[in-house]
Fold this sequence. Notes:
This protein has 15 helices and 18 strands. The chain is an alpha/beta fold. It is globular and about 85 Å long.
Amino acid sequence: xxxxxxxxxxxxxxxxxxxxxxxxxxxxxxxxxxxxxxxxxxxxxxxxxxxxxxxxxxxxxxxxxxxxxxxxxxxxxxxxxxxxxxxxxxxxxxxxxxxxxxxxxxxxxxxxxxxxxxxxxxxxxxxxxxxxxxxxxxxxxxxxxxxxxxxxxxxxxxxxxxxxxxxxxxxxxxxxxxxxxxxxxxxxxxxxxxxxxxxxxxxxxxxxxxxxxxxxxxxxxxxxxxxxxxxxxxxxxxxxxxxxxxxxxxxxxxxxxxxxxxxxxxxxxxxxxxxxxxxxxxxxxxxxxxxxxxxxxxxxxxxxxxxxxxxxxxxxxxxxxxxxxxxxxxxxxxxxxxxxxxxxxxxxxxxxxxxxxxxxxxxxxxxxxxxxxxxxxxxxxxxxxxxxxxxxxxxxxxxxxxxxxxxxxxxxxxxxxxxxxxxxxxxxxxxxxxxxxxxxxxxxxxxxxxxxxxxxxxxxxxxxxx
Length: 466
């Protein structure tokens, strides 16, 4: 679409925004139920598209793409009536005779730009939040997972009218032109680099933003933990989706005394999940395209060049965009994997002796989207939580906090702005409008100009007692 066509889409949605904003919770629930129904009807097409895009196994699609969406829909349906109720607030004595409340109103016409790594999940969950809040919506899914984006468009078009929600397909030029349009809110999921571009574009129209970004999410394993549980859960959360997950464990800080045992067990878990020859496993998907294959391969080659030790994996098949689950230790300070988000199946291991040492290692980097702690030691757990900053924390598991719609999901600073999921996603797409209604004569009527001694005494009395 060119600039004129995109602007016409925006204007069509804008004309209809007040009608949508005034829909009842029942009307919105009908839309959510319809979306759920059509999503399930298109499950086979989604399986096929995601296999074509990067060879995802159907079970992994159901677990990481379909289930999070259906779960979010059910959660919103259950709670939407309560979220939309006006919230009464207390009236101070100085405002006696009035009552006040907060009304959640739709922000208006919103733009949602979503990534390729979980295209269905990360497109439809913010869409659910925006619909629940009563907005008109433009959804721009990633051009990288082209087949899946086409299916998303079909699902949305079967669910919503064109003057309610529109899916715009296209590449970076389309996204760039969309960012010039004065949307009321922009929701973006992607890298911190592009997040800054989105924030800058939004600032020109004073649009609010939600930025779901990423970063180097650390994992700390202390010597009190269940090494078996730590190894199997880290192996699962790191290598599912070929490591292309914003909340994947980016690196592991493991206590020196258990490092060797942990290495043996995590390698055994990788083999258990994906066989001895991972390239033949149907459960292990591929890097999404050649560009991203080359990016991850460069990280691996750079580590090897700097003398980092590959203790497992490292095999690559270029024509298949295949990179084996790879564990690296003795990582050089110079290595890129020590500084940039990996977003692929490379797992650096670092050892530490004291919790303070591990905490300092984390705090010397940007604030991460997630932090994982494997420990039975309450003092260690509390010390890590209280002395680090991150978007979210999981204790004795990885990535699972995303699955709880009662928790806010999002980052802090470099890893994100704002929160998503459940009521937190609903609130991101809502304006909290403050409303005060004067029912009886107001005390302020007695303090209006022209000022005199009596009015000054009333003002002084208010300052002292109210």
